[in-house]
Amino acid sequence: xxxxxxxxxxxxxxxxxxxxxxxxxxxxxxxxxxxxxxxxxxxxxxxxxxxxxxxxxxxxxxxxxxxxxxxxxxxxxxxxxxxxxxxxxxxxxxxxxxxxxxxxxxxxxxxxxxxxxxxxxxxxxxxxxxxxxxxxxxxxxxxxxxxxxxxxxxxxxxxxxxxxxxxxxxxxxxxxxxxxxxxxxxxxxxxxxxxxxxxxxxxxxxxxxxxxxxxxxxxxxxxxxxxxxxxxxxxxxxxxxxxxxxxxxxxxxxxxxxxxxxxxxxxxxxxxxxxxxxxxxxxxxxxxxxxxxxxxxxxxxxxxxxx
Length: 307
Known about the structure:
By secondary structure, the protein is mainly alpha-helical. The protein is built from 14 helices and two strands; from the N terminus they run ααααααααααααββαα. The protein is globular, with a radius of gyration of 26 Å. The protein starts with a helix and ends in a 5-residue tail after the last helix. Keywords: Cell membrane, Membrane, Transmembrane, Transmembrane helix, Transport.
């Protein structure tokens, strides 16, 4: 009888809360839809602009086959349209070189940053350090605080240094500066990864005869692999989109895609269709990375969320 009374008294309260729950859910989904629109519309605008003519761009037409008929003008200017893809094109050759430079600089810097950052993060996670007044937490914050520094502050020092080292307009120079740029993020991600791994696993490996390096390479790194993949992917994305140092430290040989996108200007103004075509080709690899490697990024970034 008591159970029946409790059930009858709780049902009205649940039904009374249902309209409030539905309202909250609708507001949340509306906010998510709005944010998805804000995030995806620039990509949609860029892709559709690559199929517009000058008139369609200036008049602000948005919907293909409704407001305008798609045209290959932007892709034709790059030698990537169906009627020019097999013909000789100096612009297409330049685009391929810039695309290759972006791949080498982004992948090389990310790989180097993951190696150096993993070692630094493991040291900060497992050992106690003291430099002047700074301890482990202070050193970690010092690395992360480098992201606050405006890149323009480093413009003159890097120009002078690279001129003396003969690294201007070289891929090696870009790889080095990109490594310094993404290293704080890699250290931050990997330290959280190593903090979630029990120290007892390494202690057991040391008892079994492994050295510190052996325990690190055989036990810790395989467990922290998702975090390393996430750090590598995020580093590639940041390096791929970097413009300031690529424009500052290169002139012809080592230019990357962002610099090529920004250079699409002519006597008549900005060639929006060409710029949109290059931008579309540049973001396609990142879109594919996000689609196929999303689970690795989420798994790596959330591994340190639960202690």
